[in-house]
Design brief:
single chain, about 200 residues, alpha+beta, Glutaredoxin, 4-stranded mixed sheet, two-stranded antiparallel ribbon, globular
Length: about 200
Amino acid sequence: MATRITVFSDFICPFCYIGIHNLRRLAPEFDLEIQWRGFQIHPEWPAEGIAAEQFYRAMGEQRRKGAWQMIESMAAEAGIEMRPPSVLANSYQALAAQEFAIEQGRADAFEERVFRAYFHDQQNIGDRAVLLRLAQEAGLDPALLDEALAQDRYAMRLKNTAMVAHQRGISGVPTFMIGDYPLVGAQSTDVFRQVLERATQAGV
């Protein structure tokens, strides 16, 4: 029986990129059924995004560099290369687009492409034109996606995800629900392996 994992995630969270990547690396070892749930952590950010330099000015350059050195080190250990985004994007459109990708059976490919676009290529994933191009690169029909986004087709689904997260006491991402057990943060493959082995033995 497959181990079902529900992942509450946002594309603008670097730890989501690292954590999900580490989890997927274990797919050859375990029978996993991963259910992705888009959970927007900064709905208050403007649709066009915010210049990272402007947003982090109060933090101070040294503190920001220190934080990104830690993230880049974690990413390198996971086997991915990450750079700080130049624009802090409003992720709503990207999360909606991922719902479309799930329906079309291209969720993994689109997820990886969006994460890489934001955290490596420094693209604004809040820009619909950017998303349509990424969708095409991931094997999706950009015209159909454009129509879905224009209709705001996934608004209720994203709202329901936020409600479920709140009911489960989830306030941050990434949160990996393995059965009823929440695992929070960008876990290493070793931690995931230990938890998954216990979950498999318990028949979760």
